[in-house]
Design goal:
The structure holds two protein chains of two kinds. Chain A is mainly alpha-helical. Chain A contains nine helices and no strands. Chain A has one domain. In chain B, α3 packs across α4, α3 runs parallel beside α5 and α4 crosses α5. Classes of the chains: A mainly alpha, B alpha/beta. Chains A and B meet through α5 of A and α2, β6, α3 and α5 of B.
Chain lengths: 259, 261
């Protein structure tokens, strides 16, 4: 009874190590093709459009909503201590340092990451990637790299938009609805947020999240089984893995760099 | 026979199923070889093995004198520069138009100017009977049109070897003849080595110089006449079933069955 269990454990370990090796090789290939000619600018622009522009509505709407909720909750809490004047700082800091990059990454994973994985997986199913290989075109170069790069480029921009809309949502609730002085709100926001620590930090975080989501989504699509179940597994696998990876990475980045 | 591709003693299992069990055969330079066999016999898998898209568990595959089973993906690209492949489902990129699909290998691997590429693409699409489909997307084409557009892409760089997975399936008789003539012309005029899998018996017998019949993971090879004369029960059963039970013609006949009146 012990031998099969041991065998299964050994098999799983070997398979896991093999899988990790594949991920490293895959990421290495993506990085290599990202810096090597030919630069597929047109494909990259199309992918940035798919990831970025098509995610605008959900990111902006979610940003405004999250900002409004933060304004409401922040006001209720701060008013207990008579510190309503710090509402701008509370809303701004929590958005710029944490909520902006994390929520944007989760939203983009759900909308664009899953779509990216599904598209590549369906290309596997319909032998389009094999078709590229038969034309001596590496699918990692032609299909994967522009998608992963697009995620890396679009994520910080979407994060910035999310934060802007969230600050606006917080302003609407705090200033217009609850009567916090407009000048006080903006001044406390300005005073609390610094470019070096907060703005650069949020852009760094979202860049790392973009790279993570891009690599996970393209990898899950690339290694998917050539069946409709494979497409489905790639999509759900992307959302789950990328979401967990974003949250873990957020903790690590915050712990290491205090961003 | 001047051998362009040689497969020796290959074994391959997919899950529990042994698809190839000591399969050996050679494909001659400039010849039209047709791979036949029942469904699930491994015909498409054989083409994937020849293209280096899949590796056997063991055995040797030599393409143009080069052992491909041990080549890296990058080294395989060098070998594939000489090979065009038509996949059963076409495998056209669905985010690109027919024109962009056919132009892709020329844009990637040649320094041709765009007008020259356009002229070449137009010529190839006309050859497969799809002159006005350039701006269409693959989803706007029927199955037969899709396969013909894919054939245009497979041959646009004038490869020395063309692998076609079921090129006639889903085509009407006129287009079967058109593709048959196109492939035969390419092979005869350019010395192309053509390997097709096909269930379309009349076309296969008209075109083939060499037939590989796949059965039980092994190959029975010979000319069409030899195949028709074969005493092997598995071959005769397949041929008669493929032709709706009509008796086989005598060996050495033109190779086209005549239905009894």
């Amino acid at each position: 009874m012990k031998t099969p269990t041991l065998q299964a454990l050994g098999f799983r370990t070997v398979s896991l190590v093999g899988h990790l090796g594949c991920i490293v090789v895959f990421i290495g290939e993506v990085v290599t093709y990202a810096v090597r000619r030919p630069f597929r600018a047109r494909r990259l622009v199309n992918e940035v459009f798919d990831v970025g522009v098509l995610s605008l509505a959900i990111v902006c709407l979610s940003g405004a909503t999250v900002g409004a909720v933060l304004g409401l909750q922040g006001y209720n809490t701060l008013s207990r201590f008579g510190a309503e004047g710090s509402l701008g700082a509370v809303v701004g800091l929590s958005l710029v340092r944490e909520l902006g990059p994390v929520l944007t990454a989760l939203l983009v994973t759900g909308r664009a990451g899953s779509a990216m994985a599904a598209e590549i997986a369906s290309m596997v199913t319909t032998q389009q990637l094999d078709g590229l290989r038969m034309m001596s075109i590496n699918p990692v170069d032609f299909v994967v790299t522009p998608k992963a790069l697009a995620m890396l480029i679009a994520m910080p921009m979407l994060n910035a938009l999310f934060i802007v809309f969230a600050l606006f949502g917080g302003y609407l609730v705090g200033v217009v609805l609850l009567g916090v002085d407009s000048g006080v709100y903006v001044a406390s926001l300005e005073h609390a947020i610094t470019f070096e620590d907060d703005v650069a930090g949020t852009l760094l975080k979202s860049g790392i999240f973009g790279a993570l989501v891009g690599c996970i989504a393209t990898y899950r699509g690339y290694i998917s089984e050539p069946t409709s179940a494979g497409v489905s597994a790639a999509t759900t696998g992307t959302v789950v893995t990328a979401s967990v990876a974003v949250l873990l990475a957020d903790y690590v980045i915050t712990a290491l760099w205090g961003v | 026979m001047d051998e362009r591709i040689c497969v020796e003693d290959i074994f391959l299992s997919l899950g529990d199923r042994k698809v190839f069990r000591g399969f050996s055969c050679c494909f001659g330079r400039g010849q039209i070889s047709i791979v036949m066999g029942g469904s699930g016999a491994g015909k498409s898998t054989l083409l994937r093995l020849l293209a280096g898209l899949q590796r056997p568990d063991r055995g040797s595959i030599r393409v143009a004198g080069e052992e491909i089973t041990r080549l890296s993906e990058r080294e395989l690209f060098r070998v594939r520069d000489h090979i065009g492949m038509l996949f059963q489902g076409g495998a056209l990129l669905d985010s690109m138009t027919v024109y962009e699909n056919v132009a892709l290998p020329l844009r990637e691997h040649t320094r041709l100017a765009e007008p020259d590429i356009a002229a070449e693409v137009g010529r190839r699409l006309a050859a497969v009977g799809l002159p006005d489909t350039e701006p269409l997307y693959p989803r706007q084409l029927s199955g037969g049109m899709l396969r013909r557009a894919a054939l245009a892409r497979a041959i646009v760089t004038d490869p020395e070897i063309v692998l076609c997975d079921e090129p006639f399936s889903g085509l009407d008789p006129v287009n079967v003849r058109r593709i048959e003539h196109l492939l035969t012309d390419l092979s005869r005029k350019l010395g192309l080595t053509l390997i097709l899998t096909s269930h379309h018996l009349p076309s296969s017998l008209r075109m083939a110089d060499h037939i590989v019949f796949m059965v039980d993971g092994q190959a029975l090879c010979g000319s069409p006449a030899e195949l028709l004369a074969s005493d092997d029960k598995r071959v005769s059963e397949f041929l008669e079933a493929e032709h709706n039970g009509h008796p086989r013609p005598a060996p050495g006949a033109t190779g086209v069955w005549q239905a009894p009146s």
